[in-house]
Amino acid sequence: xxxIQLMGMTHFPPFVTEDHNMAWIMExxxxxxxxxxxxxxxxxxxxxxxxxxxxxxxxxAASRHRADLIxxxxxxxxxxxxxxxxxxxxxxxxxxxxxxxxxIPPYAILAYSDREVRPYDTYVxxxxxxxxxxxPDLTITVKGRPDIARWLTERLIDDGFDVAYAYEPLHDRQxxxxxxxxxxxxxxxxxxxxxxxxxxxxxxxxxxxISAKGGVRPFGEEMVLDPPSPPPARxxxxxxxxxxxxxxxxxxxxxxxxxxxxHSFLTDHTWRMRPDTAADRRLYDAMVAGDFTMWAKLTxxxxxxxxQQEILNWSALLGAARELGMAPSWSVLIDxxxxxxxxxxxxxxxxx
Length: 352
Fold this sequence. Notes:
alpha/beta; 14% strand
């Protein structure tokens, strides 16, 4: 009989940058020609948004936001150290990293062995100095457990989930940023990351990420949309099946959903200027109350309207929590007006 620890966190990319650069996504939105000038004028923003933007374009707010995120990362790390997992399974999104035009599965298991990766070998991180002032050539070792990944793949297939799997990357020679950032942030103190990981990417962005080549098109630009992501209820079922399989295994497994919630640049009804905090709050309150039915009733249209595409990683986690039959023992919602996305941290009591 195995043991399971459920957890959720964010892999917010701008955390890697310094405070004065953390609002760079907002800066991009302010340069978007498709967004009307009056919408981009701070004088017309809500008071809370103006206060966050301040006279330093969000730098002071970024410092407070970073402190809140660090508290969450430290809480996650402390729980991992107490639980002592044999492996960490991470649900994260693939944003045109390995899921590209030649193969776009709904989800997959990366059965990688140990890999040497360069976390800053991407165009985003090469554009800004890092918070840690680390070299762009930094190389780290990410430990894998391909044996457990193969075992889980077989069980999920037997359980009716035709999961794709890979032993080597198709395109991205590093790791998709959702997973790599998760490791970097849990180890933000740079004391080492001792646990092996299994990455399980989900095609969260569905209609928009492939057609946009992994980026963001100007507001209002016509696009040929791709087929959608798997619906939230299906991913909850996947999470439940994963939980059941791993609970029956001989291993101690921490399962981590890594994603921010509503993203401003995906939320058209706010002109991509701020996230849909009301939608996030409804889901957060349901999670804290253990209301799995509300999560299961979410539609793909709901998710896309609120810019919550990455919530699909958490849908898998909530499916696992439904099997556990518990609400989280600790959680926090960290909202923002100008730093792109609301973030949630959550920890459940581990199975005995």
